[in-house]
Amino acid sequence: MAESIMNHQESEPLVKYYPETETLYITNGKPLGEGDNVAKDVVAFYDKDNECEVVGLYIECAELVLKPFVDAILAKHGVSKVGTSG
Fold this sequence. Notes:
By secondary structure, this protein is α+β, with helices and mostly antiparallel strands. It is about 25% helix and about 35% strand. Strand 3 (about 30-40) and strand 4 (about 40-45) form a beta hairpin. The termini are far apart.
């Protein structure tokens, strides 16, 4: 899957989630260049022409990695979590 992401050349922003692998892919639509692991299970892809600009992220185990952030945002705004009462 990483090879297809590196060759991805959409012209519009894209956010795609693959539930079978719990992988989240986010790009601003610019052509992707090289990618680097920036954290456990997170790869940042750089602009093909400007290697200082991050244009895409690939997050494996996204539910586990992002859950604390989503929970904090929901709590801040007083939103009940799905599947809980209150």
